[in-house]
Specification:
This is (2,3-dihydroxybenzoyl)adenylate synthase. By secondary structure, the chain is of the alpha/beta class. The chain is 32% helix and 24% strand. The strands form 6 sheets. It has a 9-stranded mixed sheet, with helices on both faces. Helix 2 (28-36) runs antiparallel to helix 3. Bound molecules: 5'-O-[(R)-(benzoyloxy)(hydroxy)phosphoryl]adenosine.
Length: 531
């Protein structure tokens, strides 16, 4: 496979010797659960529920259907399905056909998908039909472009295209594939809010480890019920431990399609959900909703929050309203996962973003010159390890920038390592505002703004200014009546925020624009506010 950077042989051997990589293909996660607990509920959505044996059989049927179409053996296929049992059928069906699923999110649109098609050379796309957007029409537009796309497969009304449910109808048994587990099992898409999204090849070996070790760390067991609240194709709900991790222990996975507190709380109550993963904006909303929703989550024992920085005040609020079992997760589709541990003290749970999953995760925290910074000092996080990629898929120029010569991934995240070994994320290397010769950390300012009782969400961005270079704009969602710039700055004054770090303007917004997984999308904010 061209454009895939494998792990170097010496490190691969070390990870095998140390027991991280077991040589199991990713679809084994389902096969082995089906052997151990055939009659246990595996996946549930609003329309259906399958036991492990049923899901296993359906994945086989899907694989046979895909192979009959000529899709298999290294072919890439874009998967853009809503959270549903069919998401799981499609993922395992593709794996068993020997195809390479590209995990798109329902929020992706023409520009992103066209890019994924071009880079992956995908021959097929599997889309759904609900969710208030015409995914089928988008797939048709993509088919007309110059790419390798040949098959549009639709779960729902397929029109002239291939019906997913018909494709899955047979009872064919695909022949047992011999898989090289050091090769990619699937392609994730990068969550970056800057530049074109990149494709991230995750190998069978590293992703099986990712899911299995995460489930172990979170102490998941077969009695757990995991709710997929974020888009299922994102690494966090997919494998940290998410859907795949839940399967490694034979737990039950519930697919939610509406993460609003009202809908999600009802789903949690109906199915006795014990664990889920959210981005901070949703966790904050769920915690606030406990004030007005009658039905609150009572069964949740593990609430993972990650994808962006969770403010300490929000962490405390989440723990007091939703569950004391808050877990902060600092992760990336490229690999590295940091988790707080279940029995960590309050200080760690509320003020840090966890520590690495694996003993063999190698972290460096460096300054602009690439020199290691002293403990507790912020610097850029570089990482390599048993489940961190060694290069983006078919992105030579990007790889030159994003990886050091000895194979460390430059995360672009600014962190400090505390004496406890835990990390605190202090911002993005590039998420700074350059105002009149000063460098202002956007994350820092946002965390101060969020402490004002009238501020529901905040994003600090730099806007061009003829005198200052950039001026500081605070895009803010207010609870009720907007607060003036003067009043906000008074509040920042009482918190001891330096004068040059205070906003020059406030832009009230009904909601902050978000990326496909629900993180604040600053590029769009700047585009909206630029004069
Ligand atoms: C997760 O993955 P991605 O690929 O969508 O985004 C990764 C980036 C990180 O590089 C970092 O900038 C940011 O998202 N991030 C956080 C964070 N968790 C992720 N920033 C501050 N605090 C955190 N806790 O977002 C992701 C993947 C797996 C598990 C969890 C999150």
């Amino acid at each position: 496979m061209t454009g895939f950077t494998p792990f170097p042989p010496d490190r691969a051997a070390a990870y095998r010797d140390a027991g991280y990589w077991t040589g199991q293909p990713l679809d084994w996660v389902l096969r082995s659960a089906a052997e151990r607990r055939p009659d246990h509920p595996a996946v549930i959505d609003d329309r259906s529920r399958f036991t492990y044996a049923e899901l296993d059989r359906r994945a086989d049927a899907a694989a046979a259907g895909l192979l009959a179409l000529g899709i298999g053996d290294g072919h890439s296929v874009l998967v853009q399905l809503p959270n549903s049992c069919q998401f799981a059928v499609a993922l395992f069906g593709l794996l068993r056909a020997g195809a390479l699923p590209v995990m798109c999110l329902p929020g992706h649109r023409d520009a992103e998908l066209a890019h994924f098609l071009e880079v992956s050379g995908a021959v097929g796309i599997i889309v759904g039909t609900d969710a208030g957007f015409d995914f089928r029409a988008m797939a048709e537009r993509l088919l007309e472009r110059d790419n390798a796309l040949r098959h549009i497969i639709v779960d729902g009304d397929a029109g002239p295209h291939i019906s997913w449910s018909q494709l899955c109808e047979g009872d064919g048994q695909p022949s047992q594939l011999r898989v090289d587990t050091s090769r990619p099992a699937l392609l994730l898409v990068s969550g970056g809010t800057t530049g074109a999204p990149k494709l991230i090849p995750r190998t069978h070996d590293d992703y099986v480890y990712n899911a299995t070790a995460s489930a172990q760390l979170c102490q998941l067991t077969s009695t757990d019920v995991y709710l997929v609240a974020l888009p299922a194709g994102h690494n966090f709900p997919l494998a940290c431990p998410g859907l795949l991790g839940a399967m490694t222990v034979g737990a039950t996975v519930v697919f939610g399609t509406d993460p609003s507190p009202e809908a999600a709380f009802a789903t949690i109550a109906r199915h006795g959900v014990t664990a889920t993963a959210l981005v901070p904006a949703l966790a904050r909303l769920w915690a606030q909703a406990c004030e007005w929703e009658e039905q609150r989550p009572t069964t949740l024992r593990l609430l993972q929050v990650g994808g962006a920085k969770l403010a300490a005040d929000d962490a405390r609020h989440v723990r007091s309203t939703l569950t004391p079992g808050l877990q902060q997760v600092f992760g990336m589709a490229e690999g590295l996962l940091c988790y707080t541990r279940i029995d960590d003290p309050t200080e760690i749970l509320e003020h840090t973003q966890g520590r690495p999953l694996a003993e063999h995760d190698e972290l460096q925290i460096v300054d602009d010159e690439g020199v290691a910074v002293p403990e507790c000092e912020p610097g850029e996080l570089l990482v390599r390890g048993p489940y961190t990629i060694n290069g983006y898929f078919r992105a030579e120029a990007e790889n030159q920038r994003s990886f050091t010569p000895d194979g460390f991934y430059r995360s672009g995240d600014k962190v400090r390592r505390l004496p406890s070994g835990y990390l605190e994320v202090t911002g993005r290397v590039k998420d700074v505002i350059l105002r009149g010769g000063e460098t202002i950390s956007a994350l820092d300012l946002e965390s101060h703004l969020l402490t004002h009782p009238a501020v529901s969400a905040a994003a600090a961005v730099g806007l061009p200014d003829p005198y200052l270079g950039e001026k500081i704009c605070a895009a803010i969602v207010f609870r009720g009546r907007p607060v003036s710039l003067a009043e906000l700055n008074e509040h920042l004054d009482t918190r001891g925020v330096a004068v040059h770090c205070r906003p020059d303007m406030v832009a009230p917004m009904p909601a902050l624009p978000t990326t496909a997984v629900g993180k604040v999308d600053k590029r769009t904010i700047v585009a909206q506010l630029r004069p």
